[in-house]
Amino acid sequence: MAPPLWRWRPAAAARPFGRARSRGCRPPYVGEISTKETTVSDPLSDPARVLIVFYSRSGSVEALAVAAADAARDAGATVRLRRAREVADADAMAKVEGWTENAARQNALYPAPTHEDAEWADAILFGTPCYFGAMATELKAFLDLLGPQWKRGALSGKVGGAFTVASWPHGGSEVVTLSLYAPMAHLGMVILPPGYTDAAMLEAGSPYGASAIVGAENADPRREDLDAIRHQSRRTVAIAQALIAAGEMPCRRS
User: Fold this and answer.
1) What would you report as the CA-atom Rg of the chain, rounded to the nearest whole angstrom?
2) Exposed/middle/buried for 7, CB within 10 Å: 0-12, 13-18, 19+?
3) In Å, how far from its chain's centre is CA 230?
4) pLDDT digits (tens, 9 = 90+) for 154-188
5) pLDDT over threshold 90, residue 21
6) Bigger pLDDT: 250 vs 57
7) Is residue 201 part of a domain?
8) How many domains does the chain have?
9) pTM of the entire predicted model
10) Which of 233, 247, 245, 145 lies closest to 187 in space, CA to CA?
11) Which CATH number is 99's domain given?
């Protein structure tokens, strides 16, 4: 059971609602996300660095990822937004309406995630659709390539979280979110679910992570869904920044 609302602080004012993306159109500010970085001499005063790695076939997960990036930037973080690449071949993609076109559009906007991105970040948010109760193969493929980082402990101490999109209310959102925490544990990350730390989490998602239910037509996420991921992103930045300031972020130690 969720804790009583009277114990909570009021939710932060939501940004004016608008579509985080429209199909076939460039989302606002995306071009600045991967290039605008702040350089300072003291690593403990450097803004939190947030990596958002997602896979999106129709654009629904993309919308949550863009909202997360927006919120993290507003909270003062430096953000890299990355899209995992397809593992299916062109013939398989052509059999699903819009897949080829959406992949081309998104790949033109978002670079593929790299090992360097993961080591650069203080916090990583992973986003995925729910396919048969599991994360997308494309995102799993990226995680499976982090063996060298696991061996060196390069991601230990970084803050980690997850968000998902499913077609139906019982389409696997919670189990897929929880499944993403397993590789984070192996990597030694500080797993940070949103919990019920804001009223936005009562309206969308779960205490494990923000999520959206988009139906068979892959509808745009609702305002409530975007509010939930924005809160999760802001919370991720706040905790990462606190760990940095306390000298507890291993990758910032000289």
Assistant:
1) 17
2) exposed
3) 10
4) 999 999 999 999 999 999 999 999 999 999 999 99
5) no
6) 57
7) yes
8) 1
9) 0.83
10) 145
11) 3.40.50.360
Task: Specify if 8 maps to a domain.
Answer: no
Question: Could you tell me the residue range of the domain that residue 204 belongs to?
Answer: 42-252
Cα–Cα distance between 186 and 189 in angstroms, integer?
8
Would you say residue 166 lies in a domain?
yes
Instruction: Classify residue 25: in a domain, yes or no.
Output: no
- Secondary structure string (H, E, C) spanning the chain: CCCCHHHCCCCCCCCCCCCCCCCCCCCCCHHHHCCCCCCCCCCCCCCCEEEEEECCCCCHHHHHHHHHHHHHHHCCCEEEEEECCCCCCHHHHHCCCCHHHHHHHHHHHCCCCCHHHHHHCCEEEEEEEEECCEECHHHHHHHHCCHHHHHHCCCCCCEEEEEEEECCCCCCHHHHHHHHHHHHHHCCCEECCCCCCCCHHHHCCECCECEEECCCCCCCCCHHHHHHHHHHHHHHHHHHHHHHHCCCCHHHCC
The count of other CB atoms within 10 Å of the CB of residue 231 is 24
